[in-house]
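Hello again, I could really use a second opinion on something today. My current little project is about how a certain protein chain folds up. You're getting the sequence in one-letter code plus the fold written as tokens. Here's the protein in full, and shout if anything looks odd to you:
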Amino acid sequence: HSWAVLQGRCTPLWPFTVPHCIRSLGGVTVLFPLLERANTSKSLLLVVETICSIIRRNPRNTAHMEKHKGYPLLGLLLYRKANLITHEVANALAGLSGFRLIDAAAASDTTGIVANIPLTRDVLLNFDIWKSTHNVTLQKALMVSLTSLLSNNEYALFNAHRLHALHLLPRLLFLLKDETLDEDVIPLIMDLAEQYLLKAIDIEEVKYWCSFTHSVLPTPRKGTPHNLNPSTIKLCDHLLQCTIRLLIIPGNHRRSIGKFIT
């Protein structure tokens, strides 16, 4: 057997990685008080990047976050700090899920995937967080990034199945009902919904889309003009344009939409 002798003032040490030490102290959630103390965008970014680095490629810390409801708590804390969330913070969160945050002018993310389901569900698809930022540019970047997961992406079908499990379409339709939503974000939501419906993961969701469109459109009435606000008129216009495009493009979704129109 091998053996060694220590002489002098040598002290044997057993090295631990930072993620291992954090787990020994109680898990990733012990860092959440730092989120509450963050009072600048820079400090918030530092804490978020630290949390992401401890979770990334570490199955034990990832499992700890899921077991102890860490992702819903993370979403709640970020909602309270929404005014401090920047593009860099959002990109760090998207990177932990498996894709990058891009804008309309950037090249599409052809290899992005939805890898971290709990984070995507409780943070990235928690649109209350992103609405509370009052940052239209950030909201648009999120919609473009989610769309890139389904369009010109080699893992598009895989991502569609993941987003289906996370109830993406109902979340988007609920978001469209929000009258405070910026008008510039609505077309991007429509693009995301269109790319998702083209995958036809569940025909029932196509029917759900048609029912929502029908509920928003005004009922024809003879001799009585409709008193609709401009935002509702624009929403109806976007819904009809998207529905017509879906009807033109070949796919399993066409039959359900055709029945809705007839």
Observations:
- Residues 230-248 form the longest helix (19 residues).
- The mean pLDDT is 85.
- The chain is about 60% helix and 0% strand.
